[in-house]
Amino acid sequence: MKTHRLWIGISTLLLTVFLTAEIVDPVIVISDASSMQRSVQVVYNAGAHEYLAVWEDMRNIGSTGMDIYGQFLNGDGSLRGDNFVICDKPGNQYTPHLDADPYTNRYLIVFEDERNYTGGMEDIYGLLLESSGTRVTVPNSEDDASFRISYDNSYVDYPSVAFNHTDKRYLVVWSDRRVDTGGDIYGQLVSDEGALLARSALAKTSAGVDNFPVGQAEHIDENVTDISYSPAVNEWLVVYVLFDFNIMEARILGQRVGSRGQLITQQGTEGTGPMVCSDKTENGAPCSWPGVQFNYEYTAGLAKAGTLSGLCEALVGWRAWNTADGTSNDLHAQRIGFFPDAYAVGQGWSAGPAVEGRFFAAFIGADGTVTPDALSGFMVSNAPYDQNHYDLAYSSNNHEFIMNWGDNRNMNSHYAHDHYCQILKINENSEIEFLDASHSVPVTSDENIPLSVDTTVYDGSSLYTGAAHNPDRNEFLLACTHKSDPADAMNSDIHGIRISGITETDIAADPASKPADYSLGQNYPNPFNGNTVIPFRLAESGHVILKLYNTCGQEIMTLVDDELEPGQYRAVMNIDGLTSGTYLYSLKCGTNRTVKKLTIVE
Q1: If you average pLDDT over every residue of the chain, what do you get?
Q2: Would you say the pTM of this structure is higher than 0.85?
Q3: What residues does CATH 2.120.10.10 cover in the chain?
Q4: Per CATH, which fold does 20-500 belong to?
Q5: Which terminal residue of the chain, N or C, has fewer Cβ atoms less than 10 Å from its own Cβ?
């Protein structure tokens, strides 16, 4: 019988009818130069407590073409300094993407670049930037400190990048036509010091070009990438569009990539074989603009912070034509959970023996149902007309994703968009809840959350929006293109908006927060392999005993044994010293007693 090596924390849970969150800063003017600015991306750096926004900018179109500009913002959303040039080399620079290294307080910005333009061919370039704004000279730097990432003089586009917090390196991915005119997905590992890394020699000093195929189906178009990283599995998940012209079908695929650049199958073994993340679309109906976000974010001082539990989860999004009404594009999503191989073998998903450190990727429905290979995607927005390009972010404070996009439900014009978002809360039952801006009131996929609605201006149009979360202040920063004069085709700005999350508070002291009943909630997540949370509510004061048992009824440990006031509580339990299997937990208060099951996987 185990009676020690367990730390339990009791704290009050937020009660959403008592606390609210809100849009705290409806307009942040990030850039208002007299030119077209678009395709904004934004990241939060917990090491420096700041944001960096980057975008395409035409203010120098007559001299250098389209350039990449940036703007630092403090953690409270205020601007730090002025707009600055990231790259203004001859020719155009397009579609920037970035991620932060909070250990060195540097950023890697990647973008398409025409400086070596030959016969329609472009390159992927990168620039390593200090939090101070200083450019970092790296082994392959050119005169402006930027460096080339793709090396084949082919047609390339849509680069994405994510930082590996465990091994301190980046993975850059992009669409590339060096082999197949339809396009493949390629990648390149980059060290935290900006050296290109060969997969066979990953020391920081062994710089070497090693563009490698991530997605490569012959004579099938693969393009438009996004990427996210989780230290829970030490992997990247790369998502992209696959379009088969022969049968006119499009799907969203996901390829797992290990920290050494090795491709990983859905079962967790090394090898090629992307996961199909979306249902197919037929008759040429497009399925496009994939996005991905793990339930992880770095919190200053913690190398592996942020998940609700040990269960690693990714949310994959995409945009698809609504074949039912034939007039609009809607936004969809699919949850993917990463389960230890021992659990997968136990469930019959994989053949044994189980391999330690391997993870099986299974699909999770909006209702929390787990299936090993059956898709269970759900609609994020099906409002009238188009929901356009979007971005994703995750809050470890409230265990929720946010998606923001350009939306023309109010104007029905391809170019006339308002700015909308949706909060996707992972609740205690592992279900996805659609919440409004207060994080409390449920909404539906045709309601969503309006951020800026004005038929005299356009928000969210012109390609990408940006989204980032600040866990230190528990706020989202959502960025978009803003066009104050719809008749002026050549001028648009970059705007931002801040949405606060909810911070836990002591609600037991407030009579209005007193629960109406007694209840023991299901632990979440379940199953789990790290920490789990056991919620319960008390309508009256009393002596509370919460214990853990094995399935034979033998007591394993006491979690709570104390006098508690009325309120809503949670016990945080760590599995240290416990083996995989099913357990029972029991809550007793007065004459009330409730028993539930939980499952530990290792």
Answers
A1: 84
A2: no
A3: 20-500
A4: Neuraminidase (2.120.10)
A5: N
